[in-house]
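Let's inspect one such protein example.
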Amino acid sequence: MRYLKPVSFLVLWISLVLFWVSVDAYAEQISPDEAVVGEKVNIADFGRQLSGDNFIGCQWDEPRDIYEIRIWGIDRRTAESLRLEWWGSVWPNNGSGGWMRLDDPWNGKWVRTNAKPKLNKSGQFVFKFPPLGKEEWSQSLKPGQYTDKKQPIFRNTLKVRLVSEERDIPSQSRVMVFGNSHWRQATFDIETRFSSEGIISGRIELINGVMMSIESLPSPRSVQVDGAGWKTKGAADGSAGVRVKILYVGVDDLNSNNLTRVTVRLGLHPRALGFSFVPQDVLKEGTIRIPVFKTIVSNVFRSDEIMSSGDKWRGPVRVRILERPEMTREMAMQGIPRLSPLRWVPLGVPSARQEFFVGPNGDWKISALSLNTDKGRDTKRWIFKKDFGKERQWDEFATLLDTRQKPEFDGGDRREVRRYLEDGHLPLIHVEWKNGALHYHHALTTTILLGDYGDDILRRGDETVVLLSKLQIINTTSTEQMAGLNLKYSINTPISLQKDGVIIVQSVDSNGLTALRGIISMDRPAGGGVGNWQVKAGEGPESSAIICWQEKLSPGETRTVYFKTPFVELLDAEELKRLKEIRFEQETRAVLDYW
């Protein structure tokens, strides 16, 4: 198990204000004489010393994998009196993924080990950690629970120390701490492009690494180097930079806190803006680009990439988007591909399961998928007679309109059809179209048949929902025009039309309920009557009957048809009374106010 932190495999920790603390806060800088290519990395150089009369050790700001500790400046008797301890908190039982528990230097305790010192050829006493077990630390896991199926011979910890209970530890003694990493060497070219004529400057900072040398890139990309910084003046679209040789920590675990981090600040101020990278990323990719700073980092010199223009220097999306006009909803909608053919869109009531769908031409339908269970007070009152399952779930019941003298119900009667929402987002659907000289405007919404539309807290969910629609037919010419409207249902059941506009379903076992498809009301939202509407037989025995209306309209005259369609087919007396009284304009106002 390891303490994980997010690592990007290209540019790591790119930020406008990375590393506010200077590298000086991480102990003294490592001397090139102390780091040799191929040798183990003394990670005590990355931490802070712990010391007292009877103990000596090291601590870090982040957990480190520690395999062994060496101490010099003591005799054998003192070494054999020492006890190796590490700071235990939650590792290795700290979970995995984004919800891992983290170790900290305050909540935990010192854990004793039975490590014994061995003298090496350099006169140092070496303490190596034994395999971790329950007898040492209660948070340890079973071998099979570790990634490599083995008990770890390292400790992932924030602090480690050697303690003597018998005598004081000599003040001249020192400790060295080692993980599983070695020093490696690499050279990187860091080059920045000029956005305009002027001066550029930069500075290199290292964490967990050693600067071996820094020099200018060859002319015409040369700079003046001063210590770890550089400065030059250049022309627009030119570039300049440095070549840096460093010793970095070679470790296979790219989540390790021992990784070397190279920080490039584009300015000489200690808190100048900049970015950081991990040497392993550059060595793997060959070249990494940081477009926001117009900078390229590579481990080999590539004149074609560094001197070229275009996409290689192009800024990231988050920067380029600021150069574009501010996005508006209208622009966004224009950029979204339109569905073809247009989909039927749902209309419902908050916390109610019954749902209508409005087609692109102003027709409407219901689907058995809205009723995903046969439980509820609306059970067996809907038009779908089969029990829910693989067969019924795809059943639909549609109400189709046609405005031609001879209807075909194929949508061919409509020109310049436009469907839209009220104010672009409210649940009142408008559909407008033309048929010859006549203009049609159909508005549709849904509400709860009984009760308050906005009472979605106490609603059970199986209450009856009703579709209310208002269809206006307008003669836009200066001459008299013949207007027509035809309505057909997709399920063939004998129907009749009463004078009050109620569409009765015949031959249905209603069990005392009224079987109906809906109500038509001419010109008035309630009590308007059926007017010139009549029922005609379909073209064949299997074809549904057609409810039709035809009338001459004077120049500029408008006729209004109100349709009221309950989701269920069988209504009790209270629901039927309410269906006759309910008004489109009044309910629409309540729906829009709610939203």
Q: What stands out?
A: Confidence is low (pLDDT under 50) at residues 1-28, 303-309.
